[in-house]
Design goal:
Tetracycline Repressor, domain 2, homodimer, 2 domains, transcription cis-regulatory region binding (chains A, B), Tet_transcr_reg_TetR-rel_C_sf (chains A, B), 78% helix, elongated, DNA-binding, HTH-type transcriptional regulator RutR (chains A, B), HTH_TetR (chains A, B), mainly alpha
DNA sequence: CGTGTGTTTGACCAGATGGTCAAATATGAG
DNA sequence: CTCATATTTGACCATCTGGTCAAACACACG
């Protein structure tokens, strides 16, 4: 019985999710108010709640909408490709996401630092399964002697932490490097680091 | 004219700061309430405010009290020591802090992700100066050919991100590695990674 | 143009939250 | 023990916040 969304509904839902991303990524869930989101979306608070049941509804809609985009780069890691090339390509995709979608990165960071109360199940389910699968791929590469024998789990943590650092701690990075674009140096450094770790 | 604190004052101030650390590190500043802090400190809300002027007062007292501990490991980096040894020792100290003081790490992470509204000046001042000083040390080591020629700034970011990741994203790390202590593998991985990057 | 449906909002409410205050209670120096 | 001072708290207040509701408005379709 679900009617397909009208033009206006699509436009407003998109505006609300955009505003929610802006606000929630900066202040976290509890630190944000509906008035802030409404203001950022350019509409009244009751109108927000005409499109989404509650504050929580906006937030969880955002989280689940973004989760797929967030996992996609790792899914693209190809067991048939060249090992070092594949891993570096993955790291570059992740870094590019930090550069172009820092708000999404900070949204997840806020959520996870505060104990992941709303996506803990996804972390322990979908995410863990995906990581386990790719860890198996890396282990096969290692067994064949094609890359060095580092812990695949910690290798993945290395890529996550290094790339997300530039988005999540952007203020700190720019406090240290006020006169340059951190992402240029980061890309080069990331390449060299992974080369150094992975070369057998 | 400042009277030295009595026994009771010392005890209660410590209790409040401990409670504040517990609560603020989990929910961030805006996400925490004075009632939560009072409850965790085992006293009434008005009594909290007898010792600290405001919620903000507790928070900023915490931040500035912890900042020194946070910068100390980097200060201890010794220009006269063996380069690779010194850098790895720094990374290990940082990792140990993430392991033993994860709440402090998350407190800073929350603050910085949300734009560091209260410690931006410290980042651009004290922290930047300290980092610049140590970067100069690393550059001298590199000029002497004693370590590889990586960007010193990004090397430091690497150490920060890798070590703090295990504290700040603890929930995610443990979701992926439910059956082991992540810090054991992390220490080994960190050593190997830095060896690989730094060996000329 | 008129009518039914979808959209928007001003006014409002209940509960939470940061902070105040006067009164009660504990403490310790003489 | 006594009293001045330090400590503690119940009751309270103003503001903020998530959410509701009825009324107003816009719009498409006959």
């Amino acid at each position: 019985m679900a009617k397909s969304d009208t033009r206006i509904q699509k436009k407003n839902q998109a505006a609300i999710l955009g505003a929610g991303l802006e606000v929630f990524s900066q202040f976290g869930f509890r630190g944000s108010t509906l008035d802030q989101v409404a203001e950022a979306a350019g509409m009244s608070k009751p109108n927000l709640l005409y499109y989404f049941k509650s504050k929580e509804g906006i937030y969880t809609a955002l989280l689940s909408q973004l989760l797929n985009d967030w996992l996609e780069p790792l899914q693209a890691l190809d067991a048939e490709g060249d090992p070092i090339e594949q891993i570096i390509a993955y790291a570059r995709r992740k870094l590019a996401m930090s550069q172009h979608y820092p708000r999404e990165s900070r949204l997840f960071a806020n959520e996870i630092i505060q104990g992941a109360p709303r996506i803990g199940d996804v972390l322990r389910g979908e995410l863990k399964d995906l990581v386990d699968e790719k860890v198996a791929v890396i282990r096969r590469w290692q067994a064949a002697g094609r890359i060095a024998d580092v812990s695949p789990y910690h290798l993945i943590f290395t890529i996550w932490s290094l790339t997300q650092h530039y988005a999540d701690f952007d203020v700190q990075v720019r406090a240290i490097l006020p006169d340059e674009d951190p992402f240029e140096g980061a890309a080069l450094h990331l390449d060299r680091t992974l080369q150094a770790i992975l070369t057998p």
